Amino acid sequence: MPTNPDRDKAIKRLGLLIGTAETEAGSLVDAAIAGATDHALELIVGSGPVPTSLTATRADQLRFVCKRAGRLLTQREVEILFRVTSAAARSILTTMLATYEESLRDQFLVRMRTDATVTASGSDDAGLEWTLRFTESNTHAAAVTEAKRNGLGKSLVEEPTRRTLTVPRVISVDGKTVDVLKALGIEAPA
C-alpha cells in the first residue's frame, strides 16, 4: 500500500504537538480520517437532525472520531485536530458531552477516571474527605454529572475554575453507606 504524504505529515505534527509516540499519533490520525468518513456518510444517509452551527458540527464529527479511537480525546488533541483555541476545543467537547453523552458515556467515564488525581483531605474533627483534581474542565464536568447520577450531588463541593471536587469519603444515600470513590469508579490513593 503506497504511503500518503499528507497522512505522514499529520502523524508527525500530532506527535510533535501532543508529545506522543508515532504509533499513537498514527492511530489518532487514522481515527480522525475514519471518523470524518463516518460523519460524512451519516450526513448523507442519516435520518437525525443535521447540526447547524460549526461547534455542533465539530462535536458531531468528534463523536465519530472518538468511537473510531475507542476513547475520548483530550482537550489538547481536539485543539490540534481541529486547529482551534483551547476555549473552542472545550466548547466542542462540552457540546459533544451534552449532545451525545449516552452513546459515549463509557468513554467519558474512562477519560474522567484516568484524568482524576485524588488526594486525602479534611480532618477527623471536620470529616475526612477526598479532593479530586482534573486537568480539563470536561473531565471535571463528567465527574460532577456522574456524582449527581449516583445521588452524591448534595455532598459535592465544586470548584469549576480550579477543576476540583471535594467529597466526603463515605456518605449515606437512602440509608446505605456509600464509598464515594467506589461509586465514581475511581481508585483511592495508596
Blueprint (SSEs and pairs):
Blueprint: H1 5-19, H2 22-45, H3 54-69, H4 75-82, H5 86-115, E1 117-123, E2 127-133, H6 137-149, E3 157-159, E4 164-168, E5 170-173, E6 176-179, H7 180-184
Helix pairs in contact: 1-2, 2-3, 3-5, 4-5, 5-6
Report on this structure.
With 190 residues, this protein is of the alpha+beta class. It has two domains: 5-105, no CATH class; 116-184, no CATH class. Helix content is 58%, strand content 16%. It has helices at 5-19, 22-45, 54-69, 75-82, 86-115, 137-149, 180-184; strands at 117-123, 127-133, 157-159, 164-168, 170-173, 176-179.
Structural class: alpha+beta
Kindly, what is the distance between the CA atoms of the first and last residues, rounded to a whole number of angstroms? 48 Å
Average pLDDT confidence is 89
Radius of gyration: 19 Å
Within the largest sheet, what's the order of strands?
A: 1-2-4-3
* Major β-sheet annotation: 4 strands, antiparallel
Total helices: the number is: 7
Pattern of helices and strands: HHHHHEEHEEEEH
Domains counted in the coordinates: how many?
2
Helix content: 55-70%
> What is the molecular shape?
elongated
Strand content: 15-25%
The low-pLDDT segments are: none
Q: Quick one: how many beta strands?
A: 6
